[in-house]
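Risk mitigation, structural track. In case the binding assays with 2-acetamido-2-deoxy-beta-D-glucopyranose fail to produce interpretable data, a predicted complex structure has been prepared as a fallback.
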Amino acid sequence: MVDPRLLLASVFLIIVNNCYVYGRPLTFIEQQVQLCINQDIKRQPVIIDTDTDVDDLWAIHYLLNVPTVDVLAITTVGDGYSKPFYSGSNVLTFLDLIGCSNGVGVGYGVNLPLMSSGYVIPSSLLDAIDSYMTSPTCLNQSANIFLQPSPFGSIELIKLSLKYSKIPVDILVLGTMTNIATAISEDRSIISKIGTLYFSGGQFKSINSYTSLVPNLTVATYPESEETSDGSPNAYLDILALQRVGMSGIKNIVAMPLITQDTMLINLTQLNETLKRLNIQLKPFVLSFISSFVKCTSPNQTESYLKWWDNSAAQFMVQMQTNNSQGFCLRTQKVKSHYILSADSHQFYGQGMIDVETFLPNAHGLVNYTICTEANSDIFLAEFLNKISSEKLYSCERQYNHRFDIKLQQCMLKFENAEQQLNVAKQTSFPKAYVSFDLFIFFVCYLSSR
Ligand SMILES: *[C@@H]1O[C@H](CO)[C@@H](O)[C@H](O)[C@H]1NC(C)=O
Ligand SMILES: *[C@@H]1O[C@H](CO)[C@@H](O)[C@H](O)[C@H]1NC(C)=O
Ligand SMILES: *[C@@H]1O[C@H](CO)[C@@H](O)[C@H](O)[C@H]1NC(C)=O
Ligand SMILES: *[C@@H]1O[C@H](CO)[C@@H](O)[C@H](O)[C@H]1NC(C)=O
Ligand SMILES: *[C@@H]1O[C@H](CO)[C@@H](O)[C@H](O)[C@H]1NC(C)=O
Ligand SMILES: *[C@@H]1O[C@H](CO)[C@@H](O)[C@H](O)[C@H]1NC(C)=O
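Fallback model:
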């Protein structure tokens, strides 16, 4: 005798499998996993994907203190501005130093681009970034070596978090798109669960400003030995990943372009004045963390060489999520961009082009982006300092056992047995009925979809 619950669940599975090939709603068992996770959906779930440069850690610190955001997971990528060994461990070290150890799952991700321009980040710069917290000549902190990453790797964590979140998840990409492109390539059904994808960087110039590109193309030099002129590293370090993500069908893509970020100077005089004006006291570690970037990573450069890069992308995300008309981004623009992925594009390799439809009306593969085109650094800095000084750490409130990735693991284990039993029942008890009923449902779905 077949358990009626199993029968019901099977009917549900059949309907789900046949009627919703693209949306792929959860099966009965998967719904049990989702309920078991017990996600708080009063706040906007966000996955932060990061290459763990110093400005990425500023962005993370900011977002952990934003009450409307729930950071489900932080996923790291090892092909940007940190070496693979440090991409994950430096996030763990930083979380520990700000009082969020074990508060958010950190997944280790992909270390090689799907395709890069060939540009290699100088290892002296990578060394300075990787040892920013621990070097005696920089912040001289000791790292707790007992901190552990998530039981899931980045790709799994992205796929499973999107699948099991009760509501769409926003993704903030602060490094290359390698992790996101890999996750999407492996499981396209997660795309419908992405709310908005936010990207730090990219260039969005009119195609008309590339005089040699319209109508003439110059021949590429590959690999590139220098940074692409005016290019955005997060784009050209893995241009194929960016192209795949752009073309994947994600409904909303928002970017904080490098051109706008470049107006957001890290000006230590302005920083001091703002702290005084707002009467904000930062912990010594936090103050040195945000004010030592030039000193520790680029001592031969002037102060204005470095910018509030990734934390401005994070703040732009919050401004968009909360529909805040008083935010630091003063102007946005909707553009259709095309990322050049061609051997003929030379230094434009990996540049976003806007106005493509005007100049090349038959061009295909244009991607809609909303970008920030003008920003106010005073408003930005006040909001940033307010949040990182608050020490609320909203996304770190859960105990380890109630953390999203740990619940995910527990709940999947718990319901896996039930699923296995269901599969055995399906195969042994009523295969013929199952197949004919399957055909019947397929027929019904087929008719109703016409
Ligand atoms: C670094 O910190 C250690 C203590 O952890 C201290 O002994 C040492 O003097 C510090 N070095 C510098 C350069 O501040
Ligand atoms: C394009 O190339 C052709 C042949 O090399 C040249 O005659 C023409 O002036 C170029 N046009 C532009 C806009 O550079
Ligand atoms: C900012 O203030 C700190 C002390 O709080 C001081 O050491 C530093 O020199 C100041 N920097 C600038 C550029 O004024
Ligand atoms: C830095 O900030 C101060 C005070 O806000 C301002 O007077 C100065 O022009 C700024 N420097 C640069 C390079 O923007
Ligand atoms: C955002 O705010 C504006 C007014 O400030 C309003 O017209 C618009 O409907 C809001 N949009 C959303 C999505 O809440
Ligand atoms: C881009 O936006 C336009 C409306 O401005 C819409 O018609 C088009 O379908 C969108 N393209 C994609 C690929 O979503």
